[in-house]
Amino acid sequence: MPIKHPNLQLTRLTDAVPTWAGEIGAEYLPDVCRQVRDGGGRLVALWGSDARKLRGGFMLHVALINESGLVCLHVPLPETHPHYPDIARIFPAADRMQRATCDLLGLHPLEASDHRKWLCHGAWHGGSFPLRKDFDAAASRIDAADDYPFVHVAGQGVHEIAVGPVHAGIIEPGHFRFSVIGERVLRLEERLGYVHKGIEKRFESMSLLQGAKLAGRVSGDSTVAYAWAYAMAAESIAGITPPDRALWLRALLLERERIANHLGDLGYLGNDVALSFGFAQFWILKEQVLRTNAALFGHRYLMDCIVPGGVAVQLDAAGKHLIEQECLLLQREVAVLRGIYEEHAGVQDRFIGAGRVEPKLAAQLGLCGLAGRASAQAWDARVQFACAPYDKLDVRMATYRNGDVAARVIVRFDELFESLRLIGQILVNFIHEEDATQALEKLPANGFGIGMVEGWRGEVMVAIHSDAQGNLARIHPHDPSWQNWPVLEHAIIDNIVPDFPLINKSFNLSYSGQDL
Amino acid sequence: MTENTEFIFAILFQLTQLLLVVLAAPLLSGWVNQCQAWLQNRSGAGVLQPYRVLHKLFHKDAVIAYNASPLFRATPYIVFGCMWLAAAIIPIIAVDLPFSRAADVIALVGVFAVARVFISLAAMDIGTAFGSLGARREMLVSFLAEPALLMVLFTASMISHSTQLPTIVDTLAHHQFVIYPSLAFAALAFVIVLLAENARIPVDNPSTHLELTMIHEAMILEYSARHLALIEWASSLKLFAYISLGIALFTPHGIAEVGNWAGLPLAIGLLLLKLMLAGAGLALLETVSAKMRIFRAPEFLGTAFLLAVLGLLIHFLLGV
Question: Of A150, A275, A349, A503, which to mutate for an interface test with B (greatest number of B Cβ within 10 Å)?
C-alpha cells in the first residue's frame, strides 16, 4: 500500500503499472498530498469529471506517484459550489491544472494564489463549462476580445518584451512575456492555451477505437506514448493483457519514437547555436528513421500502430533486419556527431551553464521526464514501474546533475544510445508468429483505468472513465509538459534574452499536449 | 590620349564598376549560401536564389505600420544608396576611378556609419520590442567594430602614406609580392570586423528565425516587399563592398588601371576568382563556428582591435 490515511481506502487496479485508486473527502486531500510530497513523491495529474448523472455532484481526480506506484484519489464534490482546498502550495505544478479544471468544469480551488483563467481564451463565456455534460456550445460562444492580466515587474530600466503567439519560425503558438533589464531576464511569464481544441470533450462522443486514434493525435511527436497509455488504460478496465508479441512491438515503436525525437532535438539544438552542420546531419538521420517507419509500419510518426488490445502492425524478418542495420548505422553516426558537439568549444560555451535548473528546485517544482533526469530527478517509468515488456529489459536510466542545456543534451545522447541498445534486445526477444489478438472494442460499465508510459519527453498518462453503458464518459490525457512549462519560467531567470530559444528548445515542451 | 578622352574613359570605368557591383552583389551572397549548403551536405537553393527573392519581394505590396514616420520609408533607399556609394569608392575593377578621389578611407567608414544610424533609427521608429532590441545590439557590435576597422585602414595608410584608397591600392599593387607582417595582422582583424559588420556567424546569424537571438534581422522585421528587397540588396552590396575592400587592401594584384581596356578582362577575371575564394572561405568559417553568446562579441571585437593595433605597432617599430 503506497499511502496510509485513516480516511482513505485504496484498491489495487489490474494495471500494467502498479496503480491504486480510492475515494477521499476534499478536506483530507491536502493531508494526503503533503504525506506523498514528504515521502519524496510528486503530482502526476489533476483533472475533474462531471458525475452528476452517475452519482450526483462532480469528481476531482488527483494522480500522485511515489516509489511504490501510482495513486489516483477520487474526490467527490457537491453539485452546487463545487470547491476543494488548494494543493498548489504543496505541489506548485498543480496551479495550472487547477486553473484549467476551473475553466473547463467550474471546480474551484479555495484560497488558491492564482485565480486567473488558463485554457479559456474568451471562446466561451464565464459561467459555462465545456466539460459539463449539459454544456451548450452554440449558446456559450462569445467573440469578445480576450483579456489576461500579466504580472508586471516595476523598477527603473525594466521593460517588457512580448513574444508570440505568432512566431518568426514555424512552431506552435505560445505567448512569452519577458520582463528584462538590458539583456538580462528578470521574469518570464508564459501564456498558453492557444491550441485548445476541445480534445477531452471530443473523446466523450467517440467509440473506444475512434478514441485510440484521437489519443494518438493529442501531441503528434508522442503519438506512440499516448496510444499506448490509452490502450493500457482500456486494457486495465477490461482486465486483459495483450499478447507478448504486441507488447514487444509496442516497446519497439516507443523506442523508435524516442530515437526520432532525440535526433530531431539534437539537430535543433545545433541549429539554435547556428551550427547548421549539426542540424543537417541529425535531420538526415531523423529523416531516415521516419522513412523506415513509413516503409515498415505505414506511418512516418507511427500513428495508429497501437490499438487497445494489441497492435495494428506486423514486423517480418526482412523488417527486423532493416531495423538492425539502421541501428548499427545510427550507433556509428551519432557517436561521431556526439564527439563533434562535445569538442566544439563554441557549442559547449553556449550549452554549459545556460538555463540551469538546480536539483533542489527541480524536486520542488516536480520537474519530470527528460528535463527532470538532467536535474537529478531519477524518475523513469520504464525503470521504476516497468510494465511488460520493460520488466524483461533492464533499462539503464540516464541522469545528470547539472540541469543546464548541456545536461539535457547529454541525457538525450545517453537515452538515444540506450534506446538503440534496447531495440537490439527487443528484436532478439521478438516472437515471429501471427497476431491472434482481437482489438478491444467495448469497455465494461462504470470502469476506471489509468495508463502511464515513459514517452520521450516524460511520463504520458491517460485516464479513462467509462459510463453505465461502457462508453467513454471522460478521458484525460496528461502530458509531462504540464509539469515542465512552469519550470522553464524559472530556468530562464538571470539568463540573457538571446539564450531563451536555446533553453526553450532544450526542454522542447508540447503546446498541443497541454492545451488539449 | 587627350585629357578629355581620359576623363570619358574614367567615367566609363566608373559606370562599369557601379553596374557590375550592383548586379553581382546578390550573386556573391548566393555563392556563399551555396557553399554553405555544400559544406552541410545539403543541395542548396542555387547561386541565383537571391535574385529570385528580390524578384519576389519587388512584386509584393508593402505593408507599413500605421505609426511609421517618413524616416521608416526613406531608410531603405538611404541604406541602399550608402552601400552603393561605398562600393563606388572602393577600387574594385580599377584604381583611380573618378569617385575614389571624392572620399578617403575615413569617409568610407563614415558612409557605412550613416547607413547604420539610419537603419537603427528606423528599427526603433515603429516602437516594437524587437526593433529596439536589434538596434541596441547592432550598436553594441558596431561601436566596437568601427575602431578596429579604422585601425586596419590606418595600417594600410601608414604603408602608403595616404588615406586615399587609390594611392593605398596603387602602392600595394605595384609593390613586390611580399607579405607585410603588419598587413597580415591587419588582415586577421579585418576578417573579424567583416564577420561582425555583415551579421555573419559567429556574431549574428543571417538565416535565423529565432526572433530573440537575432541582431540585423530583428531590425528589419517590420519591413516588407520593395523596402525589404532594397535592404536585402543593400546587405549583399555591403558584403560585396567589404570583401572587395579586403581584396583591395590585402591582395590588390592584377587590378586594372583606368583607361587600360586591355587589362580589364584580366582584372575582372582575377576579381571573380578572388571573390569566389573569399566567399568559399567565408562559408567555411561560418560552417565550422557556432554563434557566440552576445556578450562574447565585445571580446571577439576587442581581439580584432588588438590585432589591428599590433599591425600598426609592427609597422612603426619594424617598418614593415
Answer: A275
